[in-house]
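User: Please go through the entry that follows and flag anything odd:
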Amino acid sequence: MMKPYKIFLALLFTLAILIGIRYTNQNFNQIEKKTYAGGLALKHEFNHFYYGDEGDVVISVDVEGGRLPFENSIGFYYKPSRLAGYEGEISYTRYEMKPTVSNPNRYEIIIPRGEKGDKIFYYLELNDSDGNTVASLISGEDNLKETWVVFAGERPLILFMGHVLLMLAGFFFVSLAFLTSFSNLQNSLNNTVLGKQILWSVIFILLGSAALGLNRQMFGTYWDGIPLGNDITASLALIIFLYWLIMLILMKGSAFKSSPSKNILPPGGARILVIIGFIITTAAYLVPHGMGEF
């Protein structure tokens, strides 16, 4: 039987990872960029993801400290990540942003919403009358990974909450396994408990990563990580799952038969690999969701 203090510590670890995930995702997905030129400040706020199946997307820039000179314009440089039936590099197309009627110091442009999972790239520049760059709000070449937007479908609350709870449950059992690894694993009971914790970790991580169909609802595909795609978040989830699946195979005696003697992995090796697995899992959970592609 697990000691209550270990369960409490595992819950604390899980709460800490939840707070960490929220922090890293907020900093990654809610971004503000500012640049200064001629005594004016140009500010652009954006998210990497636009949810929902309807409605166009409005990209805006606020001019602070005065009016934009007549001879200047704000260029919106845009390209989709792919075009149907087109092979090769897609070049950026410039569109001029226009001031809004209600606020002449806010410049906007509307882009049509793409299909689920579609991605666009863009960057913004302040140009003079000849089209020369006066200031770059976001550089299309140097910071390309910060200027992409993905269109996503509605995020069903039940599926989303199920995904979150299952992944947190997976981390809870990984944390329990981490704490149990410091016990005397020569003891048959401790070794069996460790095997069961690894088993539950695998089950919850599998269900939370793919089985709920949340990715299908939001991005139009069931899986876009390796080997079918190159999405970082999905690929990390697969790496975590495979790591603990291998651990489960190595600890199969404890996990399935409550018989540590049938394990492939000796106690000392189990301790080391569980600690490594905990570190890998923690690091992967803290990578911002929707980090992009590799």
About this structure: The mean pLDDT is 84.
